[in-house]
Amino acid sequence: MEQNHLEKYDHLVSGLYREFGEYEGRPYVADRKPHALFRAHLLELQVSDTRVKSIAEAFGDLWDALCKLDYRNLQIVCREFEGLATLCKQYGEIEGMRSDFTNSKGEEYK
Fold first, then answer.
1. CA-CA 20 to 30 A from 99: which of 47, 70, 77, 89?
2. DSSP character for 5?
3. Angstrom distances, CA of residue 49 to CA of 16, 65, 70
4. Alpha helix (H) ranges present in 1-110?
């Protein structure tokens, strides 16, 4: 990813986030810190720039935790917290990472 600010993303510039690049047609925060694509996505949604980092970190931690679960525990968590897998899948898609959470039969958790 290039680290040069693109003027077409000037509308995303804030007090905390000043540099934006583009990857596969999507903006990213060009500060070489984790969750660059997801943070830019939140800024596009007009989430307060003071909350973007913590929200992105939380989604990243949830996604990471779900990826590490075995099928049994993934099933327990996804049944108890309906919609969690869907949220993490969307996060993964935005960040360009693995985003399917399936059981041993290939059935996707929602």
1. 47
2. P
3. 6, 25, 35
4. 36-44, 49-68, 71-80, 84-95
- pLDDT (tens digit per residue) in 15-42: 899 999 999 999 999 999 999 999 999 9
Q: Which residues contact 37 (CB under 8 A, 6 or more apart)?
A: 23, 26, 27, 28, 94, 95, 96
CB-based contact 22:42 (threshold 8 Å): no
Which residues face 22 on adjacent strands?
27
DSSP three-state, residue 24: coil
Q: pLDDT of 35-89, one tens digit each?
A: 999 999 999 999 999 999 999 999 999 999 998 888 889 889 999 999 999 999 9
